[in-house]
Amino acid sequence: MRLDGQPLPAGTPARGTVPVWLGKKANEVTLAEAHLLLSDFGEAFSPTDSQQKRRGDQCHAPLSVLPPDAYFEPDKPLSFPTDIWTLACAIWSIFSSRPLFDATLATHDDISSQQVDILGPLPLEWWDSWEVRHEYFEERGEPKKDRFIFPSLEHCFEKEIQAPRDKIGMGGFDRDEMVAILTMLRSMLAFKPEERATAKAVLGSDWMVTWGLPEFEKIRQT
């Protein structure tokens, strides 16, 4: 409801929802008490069903997790690699104090520039077709010095994951686990969808086999 009594603008929700209170603060809920519930499949579809195919320009994922192929190849059909990219972003957000890509007041091109800063050069055909790349990068690919340059994935890990954990006394990941996490994430964040890890490959990655899945089994048994 508007205080001036005027109707709400188009696209504005008519109602707000108060967050649910579960009896304790989120940081007080133990892993043994946490039960994941997957819900809201309003955007779900099967890429193998010809009647359900969607193109890149029909991807409604938030900008912060939107895979680059949805932007640079808008006419190509989305498939399982799209979920691998968004899963990598979700895993990062679970580990980190902030999303990997900052969508605050960002445009598609802002996100693309962040992806290049953090992950490295785009495939050549995407780079050449990116008309506004000169707003973010010099002709040879170096980031322009008159803008904020996001650090590499490895530096982001140190700044956004390791440092906050050390600050609150959790302790950072040891080097072996850190390398395993970064290797897994990089395989999931390959720019070209056909080069991204499959779900099977992610489950068989060093981090999943050595750390992730064993901890998951411990939680299930408690």
Give a written overview of the molecule.
Helices cover about 40% and strands about 0% of the residues. It is mainly alpha-helical. The protein starts with about 70 loop residues before the first helix and ends with a helix.
What is the name of the CATH superfamily? Transferase(Phosphotransferase) domain 1
How many helices does DSSP assign?
Answer: 8
CATH topology: Transferase(Phosphotransferase), domain 1
Q: Which structural class do the helices and strands define?
A: mainly alpha
Please tell me the CATH architecture by its name.
Orthogonal Bundle
List the helices and strands and how they pair.
Layout: H1 68-72, H2 80-95, H3 108-119, H4 124-129, H5 153-167, H6 175-188, H7 199-203, H8 206-221
Notable traits:
222 residues, mainly alpha, Transferase(Phosphotransferase), domain 1, globular, Kinase-like_dom_sf, Protein kinase domain-containing protein, Prot_kinase_dom, ATP binding, protein kinase activity
Task: Summarize the structure in short.
This protein has 222 residues and is an all-alpha fold. It is 40% helix and 0% strand. The longest helix is centred in the middle third of the chain and has 16 residues, at 80-95.
